[in-house]
Amino acid sequence: MTADATRARQRLFVHDPITAGCEIELAPEQSHYLEHVMRLKPGTPVKVFNGRDGEWLGTISELRKKKGRITAGTQLREQGTEAGPTLVFAPIKKQRLDFLIEKAVELGVGKLQPVITQHGITDKVRRDRLQAQVIEAAEQCERLTVPEIAEPVRLLDWVANGAEDHHLLFCDETGSGSPIGEVLSQLLAKGAGSVIDNINVVNHALVIGPEGGFSADELERIRKQPFATPVSLGPRILRAETAAIAALTVFQDRIGDWSHRPVARD
Amino acid sequence: MTADATRARQRLFVHDPITAGCEIELAPEQSHYLEHVMRLKPGTPVKVFNGRDGEWLGTISELRKKKGRITAGTQLREQGTEAGPTLVFAPIKKQRLDFLIEKAVELGVGKLQPVITQHGITDKVRRDRLQAQVIEAAEQCERLTVPEIAEPVRLLDWVANGAEDHHLLFCDETGSGSPIGEVLSQLLAKGAGSVIDNINVVNHALVIGPEGGFSADELERIRKQPFATPVSLGPRILRAETAAIAALTVFQDRIGDWSHRPVARD
Fold this sequence. Notes:
The structure is a homodimer of 266-residue chains. Chain A is an alpha/beta fold and 266 residues long. Chain A folds into two domains: 3-77, CATH 2.40.240.20; 86-259, 3-Layer(aba) Sandwich (Alpha/beta knot), CATH 3.40.1280.10. Chain A is 31% helix and 24% strand. In chain A, the strands form two sheets. In chain A, strands 6, 7, 8, 9, 10, 11, 12 and 13 form an eight-stranded parallel beta sheet that branches. Chain A has a five-stranded mixed beta sheet with strand order 1-3-4-5-2. In chain A, helix 3 links the parallel strand 6 (86-89) and strand 7. In chain A, helix 3 packs across helix 4 (127-141), helix 3 (94-106) runs parallel beside helix 8 and helix 6 (180-190) runs parallel beside helix 8. The radius of gyration of chain A is 20 Å and the shape is elongated. The relative contact order of chain A is 0.15. Chains A, B: Belongs to the RNA methyltransferase RsmE family.
C-alpha cells in the first residue's frame, strides 16, 4: 500500500460514480463529521467507495461549512462480487438491534429483511436509522457494498409469497432441526439436484425468530414449505441477536466467503 | 416438563449445595430482585443451579426485606459436562465488552482470560462487574455452569509461561492464518499424534487482539510458539467483540458442543 493509502484512516460511502480525477460531493453530515469530529483539513487522503466502482484513494479538496468535496485519485480495489445471504429477523430492543445490524454487516450479510412475527415485541422499524448504521458498519469493516434493508413484511406473508425464491434455513429453537453446520455442509456436498439448485449464497435466507420465539402457527406453516430447512444452534438458549450473529458466522464459515483471505493489511 | 417447571420463569445461580428438600439462602440482591423487580411471592416456582448439582425446581419459601429462601424440590437436569474453550481477550470499551461477555457465555465459553496487550485501550478490568454479567448470562441461557473469569495478565507473560498448556488459535488479522473452520476441522481429523494430543475442548484457547490489533512484537512472539496456530476470520475487518463471538461460534460448530440438541422446550 502507498503511504497515502496507509494514512487514509477515513473510509466513506458515497453515492456518485467514481472515476480517476472526478470530484465527489459529500453529504452535509459527512462534511460535518470530517471537519468537526475528525478535524481533518483539505489535502487529507481518504478512501471512498459507492458499491459499484470499487474502492478509491481520494483527497479532501474542499471542506468548510458542511460542504465538502473529495477528488478521486487511484483505484485501490476493484469491485468484484460480495454476495451474502439474506438475514430475516424480527425487530428487537434498540441496543440489541443496533448490535445485530452492525455485526450482520461485518459478517457479510447480503440483505436485511425485517419481519413482523406473532410474538415479536414491536412491528416498528426505523429504516432510515438502520440505513445509517449499515453504512457506518460497511465503511468500518472495509466492505465494498452496503447491504439493502428491505421493507418490513409479516413473516407469514413473506413465506406464503415464496420467500422471494430463497431457501430458508430457519433457526428453530424447539430443537427440531439438525445442527446448522451439518445442514450447510450437506447442502454444499449435494450441490445441484436437490430443492437447492445451486450453492449461490444469495439464494439462502437465515430466519431468526423474536425473543419470544416463533408462534406454533408460524412454525407449522414454515415447516410445511419445501424450501425451508429447520436448523439448531447448539444446546443453549441464544438471545435473538446472538442467534443471528452465530447463524451468519457458521454460514460464512461453511459455505460463504470465509475461505477468502482478508485484503492486504499491515 | 411439569406445569410447575414450565411456570418457573426465573432461573437463579446459587452457591449452596442443592439436594432434595434443602433450604437455599438467597443473596440480598437476588431477594430484592425477586421481590421488587419481578414482584414474586412465596410459593412461586423457580429453577436453581450451582454449577455442581445440576438444575432443580424449587419454590420460594421466604421473601421479604432482602431476605429470601428457596426450598429445593425435584432435580430437572443432571450436571453432566459442560466443557468449553478459553477465550483470551483484551478489554475493550464498556458497552462492547458487556456484549462480548454475554455472548461468550451464551456460546459456551469455558473460561474468560483478560489480557493486557501493547495496543489495548485499557488495562483495567472490573472483575466483580464481569462476574455479575457472567452469572446473569448463564442464568438466562440455561447453562449449568458459570465460566471462570481469570485475573488479567500481560499477553506476552501468559504466552511465555506456556499459556497454561492451551493450544492457541490466535485470530491474526494480518491474514497469515488459514480460515478458522478449516484449521479446526483438520485438528478434529488429526486427533492424537500432533501438537494437539486430543480434541479436549478445554485445551484450546481462542486469542483475540484489541481494536488496534496485536503489536508486531506480540505477533512475532506468539507465532514462534509451537502451541499456537494463526487463523483468519474471513475477508472483512471485524471489531474485537465480533471476532470473539465469531471465533467461539465456529469453534462450537466445528469441534464443540453444537452437535448436541437443545434441552427439551415447548
